[in-house]
Amino acid sequence: MSARKVFSGSTRKCILGIDIGTTYAGMSYCLMEPGRIPEILPVTRFPAQDHDSKIPSVIYYDRAGKIKACGAEALQESVVEQAIEHRWEKAEWFKLHLGPNTSLPTYPLSLPALPTTKNALEVFSDFLQYLFYCAKQYIVDSYPSGSALWIELEGSMEFVLTHPNGWEGGQQARMRKAAIRAGLVPDTPHGHSRIHFVTEGEASLHFCVMNGLATDPLRLGNGMVIIDAGGGSINISSYRKVPGAEGDVFEETARPQSVFSGSIWVSSRAHAHLRAKLHDSRYAGDVDHISDRFDKTTKLRFQRSDLWQYIKFGRPSDKDEALNISYGQMKLSGEIVAGFFRPSLEAILEALANLAPLSPVSSVLLVGGFAASDWLYSELKLRLKYLGLDVSRPDSHVNKAVGDGAVSYLLRRIRVLARVSQHTYGIECLTLFVANNPEHRARKPIRDAAGDLMLPKMFSPILYKNTPVSETQEYRQHYCKMKDDPTQLNSVKIQLRCYRGQDPHPRWIDVEPDQYSILCMVYADTSKIAQGLPRKFAANGAYYCLDIDVVLSFGLTELKAEIAWDEDGVEKR
């Protein structure tokens, strides 16, 4: 573990790590003072809540879209009563609505609808604004001359937002917009540069290394898998220490996995079971209450499938032998309750199988709120023992692992030198028509500016899925833009596409059109070089050709795409 170094800056700075989870949110911060060793601390005071570092990710809006309650305040009995009386709308699990559209069909159950007056970005922004307010109050109240300190820090504060492993540039862009709307930073290039992103998996790595977890396996050169089991998503990442590197330098050993099988799906399966069980009984109207009691008691205590489980929900006079209800509590077999958990376990095991080969890995660390489930922990430990994997879970503060790790990520006490590409990235282009190629004959050719027969809808990969990518490495492909008028080459626009399918060598966009998505548009002003392009001649007459490269890099956790060209012997981008 890297020793913390004295902050060498000349002025005080602050980093705020914000982890908005599906069910709970938390923040950690680091106040860096010249000449002192930085310390990462959690924000532990929130309205309507005892000393705790997590608050529920919940907002109540009135019918006009005005915020009425956030976080722990939204769960107060008096607030819930008002919400029912005034028909307020509840926003929960809203983070999942920000995710990629391609992932929506993978959600095991339907998501709660957003309030009628709000979209996902607006709800996320409102909750960010609330958290930022709480962070301000906490720092102002916790330090001498706190108000003056906040004024000093606010204009330069750096923010790290966490997100599931599977999220990409599109989701990061929406989160950045939400942060600007929430007032965290101004909508300027400098303001944008103060917003950073890290995957929940990588944040967990920072937390584990920072706290000396799995030190022995890493020191011996073995890899480790981190399972960050949260309310909505379960993020699975694998890392190993780079041999021979100085300090804490790591690399991913496989493409990170993210499955939407967190603890909320256990609750949802329990709710569906209770609704079916009680639908014709006098307790049909109590399903939501009984499900809530299961969520807050039975689910948390569940350990063994061979023992009866109990949901205490009513008065001692509540009895119904046919429904296994007596003395105000419902009895469920342990095997039925295990059935609520089992799909989440199987999803984790399947994701681990996708990390294969696991030969360099010797240990698995289970962190996150769902890690508190004794049943999940014991079953994982049992199943993975036969693969030679040692499963452990830290006892202290696993629910703030991502928040602390987010701050540590920006402090750069450890480095992830190489990551594994999630998908295949490239662009659509034309390819020369070959008459004796069956794939070509099945498609309709067109003529380009030079008069050659070409086929559209060709996918040209630049970076393939499962490729180890270092933070300094670039991937580039050369292309030629051809037009019969040079003014049409004064600017270039490229659509960067992502292929999410299983084909290791995708070639045609029209084969699996649903598996291709546009990640971003890249524009270049090439007017200067376009003016001097030489005229070329072919069967169709004169044409002009502009040579460009499309360049991809993953310097940190964000994809960077550029157009490059040669201008007077100098590469421009």
TrEMBL record:
Domain of life here? Eukaryota
TM stretches of this protein? none
Query: PANTHER family in the record, alphabetically?
Result: ALPHA KINASE/ELONGATION FACTOR 2 KINASE, HEAT SHOCK 70 KDA PROTEIN 12A
Q: What is this protein called?
A: Actin-like ATPase domain-containing protein
Which species is the source of this protein?
Mycena metata
